[in-house]
Amino acid sequence: MKLSHMVLMTGLIGLAACSGDERDIRLHELRSNSGQPEEFAIVPNKPLEQPPSYNALPTPAPGAANRTDQTPKADAVAVLGGNPARLDETAAPRGDAALINRASRYGRQGDIRGQLASEDLAFRKRKSIFNWKLVPEDEYDKAYRAQWLDAYGVLDAFRRAGVRTPSAPPEGWED
Q: How many angstroms separate the CA atoms of 162 and 165, rounded?
């Protein structure tokens, strides 16, 4: 092996060893790397209003809600004809009680998100043979690729079985 090859290989290994990912403890993050603002994250401010009486305003308190703070759920309830005063952000809707009781009939865990995050991290670490990479890649794609659904295979199976299916773009359209 030539000396230049050994120097190149050592440099690549050293460079790969410097890469680290501080996001390991979080679940998969879906975000755009385009550098543009996320249009769905931008919420316009409520218009300023003059109160009927300045003496009737509540005393300002640090951390307390403001009259111009965004309340998207209450605003949606009001637009749809509901009563935003009856909206309880912490409780499940009354109409979902049967669903919640059925889903939790065998018990439920309060820390399920943390448990799933730690199990997911352990699974990804087991699937990662080498912890170094030259080019950043989505670790979820690599770890969960074997569990992906073959959408066109399932579509073909349904069509062969005579099930009416909606049209689908041709295979490989996103390439």
A: 9
| Structure confidence at residue 25 (pLDDT) | 46
- The torsion angles phi and psi of 22, rounded to 5 degrees, stand at -80, -5
Helices (H) and strands (E) in the chain, counts: 6, 0
Spatial separation of the C-alpha atoms in residues 103 and 109, rounded to whole Å: 12
Taking a C-beta distance cutoff of 8 angstroms, is the pair 69, 43 a contact? Answer: no
pLDDT of residue 19: 52
The overall pTM is greater than 0.70: no
Domain residue extents for the chain: 131-169
- CA-to-CA dists, residue 97 to 80, 94, 107, 152, 165, angstroms: 22, 6, 15, 38, 34
> For residue range 123-174, what is the model confidence (pLDDT) as tens digits?
888 877 665 667 767 777 778 888 888 888 999 999 999 999 888 888 777 6
Kindly report the CA angle at 123 between 109 and 15, in degrees rounded to 5? Answer: 135
- 85-126 pLDDT, tens digit per residue, is 777 766 767 777 888 888 888 888 878 888 988 998 888 888
